[in-house]
Specification:
Largest sheet: 3 strands, mixed
Structural class: mainly alpha
Distance between the termini: 28 Å
Order of helices and strands: HHHHHEEHEHHHHHEHHHHHHHEEEHHH
């Protein structure tokens, strides 16, 4: 997904920041009014009661030797599946994201966020029209709690829109907006000596912080000082490529804040700290990337640099200067704590109180407001910060979240019938990863996590074969011929690991696999780095990253 427009319009930062401030203030006032009316509190009560009802029904089902509760029991309307051809709007939107930036006739037209929104909204509207006028039966509603809507056109359209926008899109885009905006107020500048170990350290630090400030935030913080450090060198495209591999992608799998697909998993019920269990794969892949980069740079690229350039680099080398750290570093920590602690479906740790609905998002917006008001506008101007990149994400994902309701509904019901089993974790990794490489890793993650969830639910209906237990609980004793099945958010954890790793790691295979990839490419080219073409980059990823991922799958999955 191209984000090259990020660097444009830096001179408009002051005006766009003021507009953002007024917009956030308006949202905060509206939320305060809603709280006085008791609406968020009512929403939380519905969420909590819905979870309690599902847990009770599931326990009753298991006590009778049956599978999980039938979601259809929540309402009177019959839930029917849409036809397979209704996946077309979703597929067309992902195809547009992948192809339109590459076609000369549409490349410039596609650069407009308004044009991107036209395409996304039109395909989303087709999906809503189908549910309103062609679909029969009710639909499962996930917002604010689980239920089944009535069999009427308007009810179905509202249910699909609410599931997509109110339940998924708003929390998703607010988190990205918060990380993007707050990180944009921090600047690291300077000109260190561009030795192989210096560049390796840059990439390693970026991979380390990517899970905490997001891959977009880490990329924004470090790509410009890395390019500044290497400005005297001629051979530096490989440095940017490894930066994309590690910082923009593979470093971001330890927390839901690291990469968009993992946050969607968190919204679907995955524990905030569950992704920390991916640290062995994270360490294996990122360490190998750093080792390969160091060997390449130290023994191939650096010795081929012009001696005069290296002398100039050594003579002009200095130290890094950090600006904008206050208050933004504390605000970034605040975003992480808000996401971890203010889930309305779970009590705040140490209390019996559930956060009001959307309080998590309101706190994040408040932190953004503090960053824009208290942070330095000079730092943002120096970073050439503007909101184009996040507007692009919002414009596209507005349509993606609506269109993907069809494949999600189909996979939730039919996923267990696919030619793939609970033991095929490697297939889940490669299927998720392959699509994440050429489309977009966030919706791809959702599609295959739903497939894994459907398989897990089928296994839960076979208590004579599977002993199901929750992640973090002691492994139960199993009888001969049975298998212990650890689950997280109703998904077999081995499959959830595979889907999570495939979406995050293989988003690095192409420029369009993950949001920051194209943004970093564009910034590098803006600074005079000759980056490889779309397929040229894939040559690097297939030769370097792919063998590392093959080894990771063999060892861990």
């Amino acid at each position: 997904m191209g984000e090259h427009s990020h660097a444009e319009g830096g001179g408009q930062n002051s005006g766009s920041s003021k507009l953002a401030v007024f917009g956030i203030l308006a949202i905060l006032i509206a939320y305060a009014v809603a709280c006085v009316a008791g609406l968020p509190q009512k929403g939380t009560k519905l969420i909590v009661s819905g979870h309690a009802h599902e847990a009770t029904a599931e326990a009753d089902a298991h006590s009778h030797g049956e599978g999980t509760c039938d979601a259809h029991a929540h309402g009177d309307a019959q839930v029917n599946l849409p036809p397979y051809w209704m996946i077309t709007p979703f597929a067309l939107l992902l195809l547009a994201i992948a192809v339109l930036p590459l076609i000369p006739a549409t490349e410039h037209w596609w650069e407009s966020n308004l044009h991107r929104f036209y395409v996304a909204a039109a395909l989303g509207l087709i999906t809503l029209i189908y549910y309103g006028y062609m679909h029969t039966g009710g639909l499962e509603s996930h917002w604010p709690s689980h239920s089944v809507c009535a069999d009427s056109g308007s009810a179905r359209m509202y249910t699909v829109f609410a599931n997509a926008i109110f339940s998924e899109f708003i929390p998703f885009i607010v988190l990205l907006f918060a990380l993007f905006t707050i990180a944009g107020g921090i600047r690291i500048e300077g000109n260190l000596r561009a030795a192989p170990m210096t560049n390796t350290a840059f990439i390693g630090i970026g991979a380390l912080i990517a899970s905490f400030v997001g891959t977009t935030g880490a990329a924004m913080l470090l790509i410009r000082p890395l390019l500044e450090t290497n400005k005297e060198r001629k051979l530096k495209a490989h440095t940017v490529i490894f930066f994309i591999f590690a910082v923009c992608n593979c470093g971001g799998c330890l927390l839901p804040t690291g990469d968009p697909p993992l946050f969607l998993g968190y919204l679907a019920g995955v524990n905030f700290l569950w992704t920390m269990c991916l640290w062995p794969e994270w360490l294996f892949v990122n360490v190998l990337l750093l080792v390969v980069y160091y060997l390449w740079d130290a023994f191939y690229a650096y010795p081929r640099e012009n001696k005069e350039d290296l002398r100039e680099d050594k003579a002009t080398g200095g130290s890094l200067k950090f600006s904008g750290m206050f208050p933004n570093i504390f605000l970034l920590a605040g975003v992480i704590f808000a996401v971890a602690l203010l889930d309305p479906s779970k009590p705040v740790p140490g209390t019996n109180w559930h956060a009001w609905m959307y309080l998590r998002e309101i706190v994040q917006l408040l932190l953004v407001l503090l960053s824009l008001v208290l942070g330095s506008q000079l730092v943002r101007k120096a970073n050439r910060f503007n909101f184009n990149a996040i507007i692009e994400v919002a414009a596209l994902f507005f349509g993606i979240f609506i269109c993907m309701q069809v494949p999600l509904q189909i996979l939730n019901e039919k996923g267990s019938e696919l030619p793939i089993t609970l033991e095929d974790s490697h297939k889940f990794f490669w299927a998720t990863g392959s699509l994440s490489s050429v489309l977009d890793n966030a919706p791809t993650y959702v599609v295959f996590s739903e497939t894994a969830r459907a398989l897990t639910k089928e296994a839960e209906k076979q208590p004579e074969k599977y002993a199901v237990y929750q992640a973090g609980e002691p492994k139960p004793e199993v009888k001969e011929g049975m298998q212990a099945l650890e689950v997280e958010a109703d998904v077999y954890t081995k499959l959830l690991r595979a889907v999570s790793l495939g979406a995050v790691f293989m988003g690095a295979m192409t420029y369009i696999g993950n949001g920051p990839n194209f943004m970093v490419k564009a910034i590098a080219e803006e600074e005079g780095v000759k980056m490889p073409s779309f397929f040229g980059y894939m040559g690097y990823s297939c030769a370097i990253l792919l063998p590392i991922l093959v080894a990771m799958v063999f060892l861990f999955l």
